[in-house]
From TrEMBL:
Subcellular location: Membrane
Membrane topology of this protein: Multi-pass membrane protein
Ranges where the Calcineurin-like phosphoesterase domain occurs: 61-294
Transmembrane intervals: 20-38, 351-372
Keywords annotated in UniProt: Hydrolase, Manganese, Membrane, Metal-binding, Transmembrane, Transmembrane helix
Organism, as annotated: Spodoptera littoralis
GO CC annotations, alphabetized: membrane
Alphabetical list of Gene3D superfamilies matching this protein: 3.60.21.10
Classification via InterPro entries: Calcineurin-like_PHP, Metallo-depent_PP-like, PGAP5/Cdc1/Ted1
Annotated protein name in UniProt: Calcineurin-like phosphoesterase domain-containing protein
Example of a GO biological process term: GPI anchor biosynthetic process
Amino acid sequence: MAFLVRKLRRSFTHIIPRLFIGLVFIYVYCEYLIYYVTQIQCGWIMLSKEPNDGTEPVYAMVIADTHLLGSRNGHWFDKWRREWQMHRAFQTAMTLHSPNVVFVLGDLFDEGKWCPEKEFNDYVDRFYKLFKVPDGTAMYTVVGNHDIGFHYRITPHLAKRFESKLKSPPVQLVSIRGNHFVLINSMAMEGDGCSLCARTVAEIANISNILKCSSGSSLCKGKKRLERYSRPIIMQHYPLYRESDSVCTEPDAAPLPERNGLFEERWDCLSKESTENLVESLHPRAAFGAHTHHSCVVRHSFVPTSDHKIEFIEYTVPSFSWRNRLDPKYYLLTISPEEVKVSKCGMPREWTLQITAILMTLALIVYLRYYISVDTLSYNYKQL
């Protein structure tokens, strides 16, 4: 009997510490390290040529559709899990990539369109805690339909509180090292003359004039100019007008048959009229949108007059949340006044996290069984 007690005590004192250390390692790897292992594989794409004046390029990170849950939708565990995943992925990106600026392309909140004031304030606090940026990194947000509602559901109060709390006016011109970004409230591009739309259209016209004057255009009607002109980059929530996602050929584009479903203007994308007005006013060299939760790359070519063509690439950014897709993504942009280089970065897939945890747990069990058998043989041999 004493022999069995000593044997059990020996097994307990040797196995439990190893089991504990193994479980801790599995947790740390699956909840922390796996993000580094996955995201370190992505990085900034080098420019084809150095900027003429030797200015450092702008390194920008773009995310979209985080859809933080509120009090109505979703289970509390789902809410906690998705927010933890996004927090870890974002903070890992900050550590690995150290971007100069982060752009968040709308639908920060899932229930911003109807939540009361206290809950909205909690939303804002959670957002800035989850997506905290280090000193030296700027963050800009644009509004999405889940933040304030689709056009005819927007009230002055909803629009104002997002603008004031997130420092996100309907239109904003951001200039960094000779690169210019125009951030736009997509829902204010309805074109019906409402006060929010009128303010947005007027501000776009003002920015258009600044760009014309900065480029030396004969159409300049003012004196305000930028230090250095380059064609701007559009940042907004909606994609520009397209008939459907059928033109999207990315591996993470919308699945079939959803991809072939026709878009509804002002609901799934900007209207054709607003898109043409925006492009002709700003002459963008690139555009970034979101909203669909899927990836898409579209090469646009607009010909407003017979002797003038505006060509650029539009990128639709996939959702950053595992709640919206099993393989969320973010973009890294290397930008100079002459070039825009885009790198799409993956994060751990949902099934990868689960399979990794299962395989590591099985490996731990096999190791412990092997250790017990070897330890038992060794102990019995010593007793002989």
